[in-house]
Amino acid sequence: MSSLSAPESRPVDQAGPDPLLVLLDPAARQSDGESVRIARDVLCGGADVKVVLPESPSELDRALARRGRRRPVVIGSDLAVQRALQALHRHRELGADVLGVVPVGHPRSVAAIRALGVPPEPVAAARAVIRGSSRKLDLLIDDGGGVVLGGLRIHPYRQGRTGGWRSLWAKLAAAEQATAPAGHPRLRIEADGCLLADVHQPPCRLDITVPADEGVLELLLRTGGEPRRLRAGSLTVSGRGFGCEADGHPIGPVGARTWTVHAGAWELLLPAG
Question: Among 23, 49, 102, 266, whose CB has the most other CB atoms within 10 angstroms?
């Protein structure tokens, strides 16, 4: 894990902003170094800043464990924010600190965090970290420790749809597909313990959104007929090699997983007002 000096950082008095631990995603620095530089300059001009580049989950864990009273700030994509929240969840520290975020990356890679109200421009986002107000938000957490900020998509794997998916996933799912009836794995879906779809029904797709602070998830189930819309607090899906996208990022293949809404589980710094 690299630690970067912050030449423009300055100590702040008791009445000033909290000191910051800036978790800089290495991918953000590679994809848009200028936005990263601008964000660092604004943060260093307004608070006492320490910048680190965690390159593995263990380095991220160590950086957060040693942060002291520094407030964590992520510079990077939705995936970088997911990783930080997962690390805090592992250590049972979700909600212990308000999280600041400066989105850096392709618009698709920062869509979830921007949808929550974080400004897309590095200057405005960095200023919100220093002078903004916090908002409690819901979080979707699965039984494997993964988190979802805003959206989840679940569907059976289909041959030919390998673009964007990891090659290992494609190979494993193709093997499952070869032994499944009609070439399409089926899904069993339960919401709050109620059966919505079974493995004997046609293949289906499920889109889930997490409203910011309503304590529920919203489901849109497509099974070939009219889409069904409903709300629930938890969701369990099982099947043979089904695929997931959490905030646009692939997960799996998985055979079974349960997601549960945790109301007000974390706090995010947003522009004041």
Answer: 102
Q: Classify domain 148-264 at the CATH topology level.
A: Tumour Suppressor Smad4 (2.60.200)
Region of residue 52 (phi > 0: left; psi between -120 and 50: alpha; otherwise: beta): beta
Please check whether the domain covering 2-131 is classified as CATH 3.40.50.10330: yes
Task: Kindly state the DSSP code that residue 92 receives in the 8-state scheme.
Answer: T
CA distances (Å), origin 86, targets 91, 127, 206, 247? 9, 25, 23, 14
Q: What is the pTM of this model?
A: 0.82
Distance CA 28, CA 156 (A): 32
Dist CA 206 CA 132 (whole Å): 35
